[in-house]
Amino acid sequence: MIVVSKTPRALLSLAMLTATASASLAAQEPQDQSQADLSATVHMPPSPETAELAEGPEIEGIISARSGDSIQVTASDGTNTAIAVNDATRIKASGGFLGLHRSKLAAESLLNGLPVTIKTVQSGSGLLASQIDLKNKDLKTASMIHNGTAQGFAEQTAATEALRGRVGDIDQYNIKSTTNVNFDTGKAVLSAQAKNDLCATATAAEGMDNALLLVVGYTDSTGSSDFNQELSEKRAGRVVNYLQQVCGWKPYRMLTPSGMSEADPLASNDTVEGKSQNRRVAVNVLVSKGLDGL
Questions:
Q1: Average of pLDDT values for 138-161?
Q2: 3-state SS track over 67-90
């Protein structure tokens, strides 16, 4: 089931990604003006049941999710609409003939990030796509993004498995360094100093062969045990996200982060200064003893 919600910020990011890739393609491939107005429709004949259905609204936006035979289209205002696709749905691609059977086209080419205009009919309590219009250039862009992402995940998985194979029987590591970043009471917001320290740590670790990062979150004694456990995990997750998204640390070189709540305090929780030191995330740079120096 696809949940209808409004996500304008996510839509803007997706639209910018698609637009950027489209511009890149346009710069690389000269446009053949003789082909610009060509169009082709790949479809199965509409069933009598579809022909008798009441006309629905025309939906324009970007495919933002797929679930079985349904797609979710996000409009420019952030509105999400779930639309069913079946064998009677016609898929029209402007800019050239795609040369694909409709079912194959639907399965392989209605990709997340693809801009579409969809004519719909009312089917029960929902909408059914009678025709989906898309641009060949946008289809190429979405395919490039999709294939690039898939390739990236495949490379990451292979690297992770290779690394695990090398350290699978080694349970001891050399701790090369530990960086502690601190937080305000009850918060998981990174300070400017913390952000600088994290990227400096990632840069230093990048220069070490076979280095991994282990991120562990902690709290002081303020609050309940359940709250502190969740807070310590949230702090660790925030640090991991920043290391990967901003500092460029590869996910497959990150050990599973953990939250330790109030455990292993650096100082006494009986003082304000001690509590301040305990509200931290420790970023440990590790190298397996079996690989250190290789």
A1: 56
A2: ECCEEEEECCCCEEEEEECCCCCE
Strand partners, 61: 116
Tokens 């952000």 found at? 195
Q: What is the pTM of this model?
A: 0.45
DSSP secondary structure letters along 79-129: BEEEEE--TT-EEEEETS-----HHHHHHHHS-TT-EEEEEEEEETTEEEE
Task: State the Cα–Cα distance between residues 179 and 49, nearest whole angstrom.
Answer: 65
Identify the CATH homologous superfamily for domain 8-144. Nucleic acid-binding proteins (2.40.50.140)
Its CATH class, for the domain covering 171-288, is alpha beta
Pairing of strands 90-94, 126-135: parallel
pLDDT in tens, 257-270: 889 999 999 999 99
Boundaries of every domain in the chain? 8-144, 171-288
